[in-house]
Amino acid sequence: MARPITHLGPLFLDVAGIELSAEDRNVLSSPMVGGVVLFARNYAGVEPMIRLCDDLHALKTPPLLIAVDHEGGRIQRFRDGLTVLPSARAVGTVWTRDRQAACRLSQAAGYVAGAELNSLGIDLCFAPVVDLAHRDSVVIGDRAFGSDPAAVAELALHWIRGLESGGVHATIKHFPGHGGVAGDTHHEAAVDPRKEATLERRDLVPFRTIIGRLPEITVMTAHVRFPALDPRPASLSPFWIGEVLRRRFGFEGAVVSDDLSMRALDPVGSLEERTLQALDAGSDVVLLCNDREGASRLVGTLRYPQPPLSRLRLLRLHGPSRRPHGALSGTPAWQESVRLLGVLRDGTELFPGGGAG
Predict the structure, then answer these.
(1) Which of 15, 114, 127, 196 gives the lowest tally of CB atoms within 10 Å of its CB?
(2) Catalytic: 258?
(3) Burial (0-12, 13-18, 19+ Cβ within 10 Å), 348
(4) Confidence at 351, pLDDT banded by 50, 70, 90
């Protein structure tokens, strides 16, 4: 039976297990759905993940995009059979004593992540984090390369270069910066009271620098509010997405909202209201994860005239052909990257960075 020919819609959903259920197939086949976000619960090893990604890609034409949070450290969804990646902080600690070595390590970590994710069938990685490390931000913590904007930008650029040479598209997050708040937007509202001048000197620097060099990179927005500039969360803000990202920074890539089911958006209204506000603000993709009942209801009712340029941005996110996983260990680039990461692992207790997230 031929796959239905359609376009990629703006909704990215999740699935419950390591295989697709009949309900998954029905919901994901909606023209409103453009991709899937995978989690640790979907991973049972290399071969089951390859089968799951193959099944997802086979559902429609063009294929659904498949994304995952795979930063390294405590946010590495897939582990068994893959290389354990360092936290961004572990890489950042090297910067203070040897900047060139830190850049080589960051690129090696990105390359290993990209090569291994590509071999599974993943298109898009929601990393690297380019938020700055601030003392009070536990949710960011060791996910940040550091507190120096220039260092964060340079290390992130090398991580992106490695990831994309490995065969997976990168995402910088969480625009315009999540590091300045103590609150975790998964569980509560987060407000950053700082003025525009401070953000311009600090948190916006890595985003502006990276976009200046890579204007089509994907950007994920934060649910943080910056009331000195706009009363709305950045993920729902035409000011942050349209004015700052698009006009001031010259950004040309896809904008991805952080998960709209997060509690930080509870004051905004229903899942449909949040989705419409995110899309109207200029998001190309909205994430709706860990709320299948709400997502299924929304898929059945949402009608949104997706702009042609937005559809084009999504088509650009398909990864290159999948390389055989078993062949990775025989390639010189993978061997050298793993060797460099081994040196870092043996030299710092920061390497593991915690659990799978």
Answers:
(1) 196
(2) yes
(3) middle
(4) low
